[in-house]
């Protein structure tokens, strides 16, 4: 897989959206990881904002959610992973 962006509850959706749009334009797909409800909320907002950023370029986004395991400070946690790509 290509680029993985990690989103936290403190992430600013507009800033994440800018990073998402840049990676999407360059690579065509990007993976976002979020652990916890707050982080997932910010990630979903960022994906929605990104759609608006890339729509003028004729890019329609799809986001495929899945569970994944991540290790944080030696502890295994469940994260939500969004595969975001152009349709």
- What's the number of helices? 2
**What percentage of residues falls in helices of 4 or more residues?**
25-40%
What structural class should be given to the helix and strand makeup?
alpha+beta
Record field, number of beta strands: 4
Query: Which architecture name does CATH use?
Result: 2-Layer Sandwich
Q: List low-pLDDT spans.
A: none
Distance between the termini: 17 Å
Please outline the major beta sheet: 4 strands, mixed
Q: Proportion of β residues?
A: 35-45%
Shape: globular
Task: From the alpha carbons, calculate the radius of gyration and give it in angstroms.
Answer: 12 Å
- CATH topology grouping: Translation Initiation Factor IF3
How do the strands and helices of this protein lay out in sequence?
Blueprint: E1 4-7, H1 13-27, E2 29-34, H2 37-54, E3 61-72, E4 75-86
Parallel strand pairs: 1-2
Antiparallel strand pairs: 2-4, 3-4
Key structural traits:
87 residues, alpha+beta, Translation Initiation Factor IF3
Summarize this structure briefly.
With 87 residues, this protein is of the alpha+beta class. The protein is built from two helices and four strands, in the order βαβαββ.
